[in-house]
Q: What sequence folds into this?
């Protein structure tokens, strides 16, 4: 078993998953504004520190994805954030892309940037304590989109990123996110997501990436959020498994889904069904941002000093997701 494979398994095994707390300052400002909190470095740190000191971290969170600002911050008690996270036996990770930018010659589509100087940045992040990284490609479904150009460019970037990350001794999370925005059917989402993921693996293989030392972070297969033809959770689960079976090579140890704008319960229920019906060898778990933090953020915004109330809410959510990662969640447990 390679070192990278060991790191990947430590993050996602035994019902553990990933806390995606890597919102860039722009995104975090929007999230805080929604709950009437000023987006200052101090407030961003306070909320995140409250989550990272929760007792559920040790049991259920195998890795936390951080943003550059956070990995460089220090807690009120003088601990560095990576050190705080490691003290719960959880691995610190870091988002290393610098965002999705307009793709030239394909107006309306994006390509993720951040390869320039990446090797040097990775050395710095490793020294700070990071043991895994994240890079997100974003694809839209609309008319002829995602175009071949967007699919190829993002796959190429994800592969070059992954090769550099493995060279630096860290595990790359490969996140191709096909957005749920639009009126497309789940069938179209299935076809497009399969095409996107297959292209990513073509490029990862071309770039000689060790597939046993990555984690794939895809979207679940959903109908667009403006689609009239909604599908059941059972269909989401079946289509998601079908997609991954047909597009992910067997060497990949695990899949950690993004929540992508689903509600906390919806994302949990779908993950639970996926695990109940998981007839693959892949570990299937969570790498949720919004679906782990939404209610905790709401409670925190009511009284930012009431650490316990925020942590209780977060602990509950994390426990529910972990149960779902083992196919043991039920709706009744939500109200206990
Ligand atoms: C935490 O949100 C991340 C967004 O980062 P940007 O501010 O750079 O857009 C995002 O990449 C996140 O890690 C994944 O999309 C998963 O988050 P959700 O909320 O979809 O589970």
A:
């Amino acid at each position: 078993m390679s070192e990278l494979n060991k790191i990947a398994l430590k993050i996602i095994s035994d019902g553990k998953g990933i806390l995606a707390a890597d919102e860039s300052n722009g995104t975090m400002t929007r999230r805080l504004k929604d709950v009437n909190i000023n987006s200052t470095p101090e407030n961003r740190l306070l909320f995140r520190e409250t989550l990272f000191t929760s007792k559920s971290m040790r049991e259920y969170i195998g890795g936390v994805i951080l943003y550059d600002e956070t990995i460089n911050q220090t807690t009120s008690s003088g601990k560095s954030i990576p050190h705080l996270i490691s003290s719960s036996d959880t691995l610190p990770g870091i988002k290393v892309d610098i965002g999705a930018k307009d793709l030239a010659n394909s107006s309306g589509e994006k390509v993720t940037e951040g390869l320039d100087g990446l090797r040097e940045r990775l050395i710095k992040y490793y020294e700070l304590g990071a043991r895994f990284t994240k890079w997100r490609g974003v694809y839209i479904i609309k008319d002829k989109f995602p175009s071949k150009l967007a699919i190829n460019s993002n796959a190429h970037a994800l592969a070059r990123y992954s090769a550099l990350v493995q060279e630096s001794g860290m595990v790359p999370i490969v996140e191709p996110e096909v957005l749920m925005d639009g009126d497309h059917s789940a069938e179209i989402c299935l076809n497009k997501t399969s095409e996107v993921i297959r292209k990513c693996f073509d490029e990862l293989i071309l770039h000689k990436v060790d597939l046993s030392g990555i984690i794939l972070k895809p979207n679940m297969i959903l109908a667009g959020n403006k689609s009239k033809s909604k599908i059941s959770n059972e269909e989401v689960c079946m289509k998601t498994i079908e997609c991954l079976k047909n597009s992910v090579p067997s060497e990949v140890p695990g899949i950690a889904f993004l929540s992508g704008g689903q509600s906390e319960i919806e994302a949990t229920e779908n993950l639970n069904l996926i695990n109940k019906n998981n007839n693959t060898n892949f570990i299937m778990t969570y790498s949720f941002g919004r679906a782990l933090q939404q209610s905790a953020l709401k409670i925190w915004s009511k009284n930012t000093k009431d650490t316990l109330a925020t942590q209780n809410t977060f602990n509950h959510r994390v426990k529910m997701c972990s149960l779902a990662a083992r196919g043991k969640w039920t709706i009744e447990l939500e109200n206990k």
Q: What stands out?
A: The mean pLDDT is 98. Residues 20, 22-24, 27, 65, 99, 136, 177, 258-260, 288-291 surround 2-O-methyl-1,6-di-O-phosphono-D-mannitol (CB under 6 Å).
